[in-house]
Structures are given as C-alpha cells and as structure tokens.
Amino acid sequence: MSDTTYRAMVVEEVAAGKYDQAIVNLDPSSLPENPVTIAVSHSSLNYKDALSAFGNRAVTREYPHTPGIDAAGTVIADASDTFAVGDPVIVTGYDLGMNTAGGLAERIAVPGEWVTPRPDGLSSREAMILGTAGLTAALCVEKLLEAGARPADGEVLVTGATGGVGSIAVALLGKLGFKVAAVTGKLESAEFLTSLGAWKVLDRETLAPFADKAIAKPLWAWAVDTVGGETLFNVIKCLKYGGGVAACGMASGAQFQANVFPFILRGISLLGVDSVELPLQKKAGVWGKLAGDWYIGEQLEKIAEDISLDQAPEFLARLHRGHGIGRYVVDMT
Ligand code: NDP
C-alpha cells in the first residue's frame, strides 16, 4: 500500500447487465466517511461477494462498488477513540461489501459498531480463513447444541459440504465428536471432506428421491443446510424424531415447497441462522470460541487457498458457478 493510494477491486456495470471487475489504485479520499480506518491485511471470498461482483442488485444497489464482506487488519485511525492505532481487528457482515466499500481492498473505513478486536488465538489470516463462513458455521453448530444436539443422537448431515460454510461446519462438528455425513455435488472431493472430519460422504443426488414424498424415512439426527431451496425440505423430511436443521444458505435457491408433517409428526425444528446483523457482542463471543475451545487450526490449513487481490475476480467467478472448494483467503500483505 502506498502512502497516497491503496489497491481495491472495483466492479463496474460496463453494459446493461454486464459487470467487469478490475484491480485499481484509489485515493484515500474515496473511502466512505466512517470513523474507523483499517489497513486490511487479509480478506476472503464468500458467495455473497460473488453475487455482488456479478451485479446482483439484491446485494449491491449501486456500482461502481468494491465487494468484500470480510476484512481483517490493523486500525490506522479511529475518530471515535474506541480503538488505538495498530489494534488488530476483524470486520464481517453488517453492510460491509454490500453497499459500503468492502474488504477486497487494502483499506476500509467503517463505523466502530462493526469492528471487533481480533482474539489473540487467531492470526489475521486464520480469522479470514474462517471469515463470515466460519462465523456462520459456528453459529449453526451453536444453534444445534442449544437445541439439544449430542453426538450420541446419531449422524449430522451437512449440505454444500465442500463450500466455505459447509467445510468449516464439517470440521467443527467433527472436532466436537459428531459423526458427520457430508453431502456434496463434488464426490471427487470425498477425501478432502474425510480429512476434515466427515464420517461419510454422500452424493448430492442421495436427497433427490425424497422430493416426491411428504415425509421420508428418518436417517439423520441433526443437519446444517447451506444450500436452501428444495434441498432444505428434503433434509427436514429425513430428520429423526426431535431433530432439527440449522438453515443458513441458499446456494441452490431461496424457495421451497413444504408441508407440516415433519414438524407435527416428528417435532422437527427449523433453526434460522444469520451472521450478518448479529449483534457485535455476540459476534465477538463466537470469535472467542473459534480462537479457543473450537479452534480448528489444522483443518483450516486444509480448507484454505491463499490468493492475491489480482486473482480475486477469477476466483469469484468460480464461486458464482458453485465450483468453489473450501475458503479463498485474499492476502494483501
Ligand atoms: P460457497 O460458494 O463456498 O459454497 C456453496 C456450496 O453449496 C458449493 O460449494 C456446493 O457444495 C453447494 N452448491 C452450490 N450450488 C448448488 C446447487 N445448485 N445445489 C446444491 N448444492 C449447491 O458458499 P458459502 O459456503 O460461502 O455460503 C453458502 C450459503 O450460505 C450461501 O447461500 C450463502 O449466501 C449463505 N450464507 C449465509 C450466511 C448467513 O448469515 N445466513 C452467511 C454466509 C453464507 P457441494 O458441491 O459440496 O455440494
């Protein structure tokens, strides 16, 4: 980063419905007027960044725009006097990278209420291997534990298992002693999933035959669903009595057709998970867990692929097609 300019990925609408992503030098005066300025050392790529980078107006209303819902780095300046210069911090979610210039840049400027201190047990890079995906996976696991999930209950299904949220959910649940059944469209990645802690790996097509049934044979005790759409309800139909699913994603779609049978005949719980608007204190608590008892350092190394800011557009295109595996960490050091 030079003293006068900083590098950022900027997405522009170059023709109606056609979006271009370029790495450019920006003047610090182009940062939004927010009190906390951060030198970003690491960011990461999330599905939502891919939506923003390819013009999804439900995520980003106006272009040119810099995506990036995750950032970790050090404070350069804080007009609100909450943080000292040099403090290591993490920002995920809220409006970062949606309609506020995001973490795919060497600098961000954000409100203090979005900034959490980085816990000692996590490096900046590790915090971004986790990022919003890790926070979300941890929240899904918390929801299941709060609902009473115990390893003795039986297998826990994780859909979209090779994705960012899915792979971290597999690793976390494995660490906590659960037998994880990882569902994937990429069976060639079965070894990767097993190395993260999956008990078994299932083809995505395993769930397809349940589409025609109102309720199906109970197969799994609990589930984390990152895929949404019809998959979510197919999972719900196959949960054992008293089980539940933590639902956080929509990689295959937002809509699904449902009936009440799994809820009224088996007492199944549908547990919604949001990591974006979650109050900062709660976010900080989850980061503390991920740096402490839930630290999965060895698995994080298997999940991570380090890329440069210049490579971000190419890897966002991969995520947009559903072809991502694990987590892409953008190294800006
Ligand atoms: P990724 O792109 O990293 O992973 C998504 C995975 O879903 C893919 O790798 C693939 O895994 C699977 N998938 C993709 N397309 C389909 C499809 N058509 N049908 C079935 N499976 C598919 O995304 P993230 O892990 O970052 O995010 C996952 C979801 O969670 C997204 O919808 C995202 O928006 C949402 N999310 C929600 C958050 C919240 O706060 N609620 C926070 C973070 C993410 P495989 O090939 O292994 O099946």
Brief write-up:
It contains nine helices and 15 strands. The protein is an alpha/beta fold and about 325 residues long. It folds into two domains: about 5-120 and about 300-330, Medium-chain alcohol dehydrogenases, catalytic domain (Quinone Oxidoreductase, Chain A, domain 1); about 135-270, NAD(P)-binding Rossmann-like Domain (Rossmann fold), CATH 3.40.50.720.
Task: Please describe what this structure looks like.
The protein has 333 residues and is an alpha/beta fold. The protein folds into 2 domains: 6-118 and 300-331, Medium-chain alcohol dehydrogenases, catalytic domain (Quinone Oxidoreductase, Chain A, domain 1), CATH 3.90.180.10; 133-272, Rossmann fold (3-Layer(aba) Sandwich). The chain has 9 helices and 15 strands. Strands 3, 4, 5, 6, 7, 14 and 15 form a 7-stranded mixed beta sheet that branches. Helix 9 (312-320) links the parallel strand 14 (304-307) and strand 15 (327-331). The N and C termini lie close together (9 Å). 47% of the residues are buried. The mean pLDDT is 96. The protein binds NADPH dihydro-nicotinamide-adenine-dinucleotide phosphate (NDP). The site of NADPH dihydro-nicotinamide-adenine-dinucleotide phosphate has 32 residues, from helix 1, helix 2 and helix 3. Pfam families: ADH_N (PF08240), ADH_zinc_N (PF00107). This is YhdH/YhfP family quinone oxidoreductase. Residues 21-330 form the Enoyl reductase (ER) domain. InterPro entries: Acrylyl-CoA_reductase_AcuI, ADH-like_C, ADH-like_N, ER, GroES-like_sf, NAD(P)-bd_dom_sf, Zn-ADH-like_protein. It comes from Microbulbifer salipaludis.
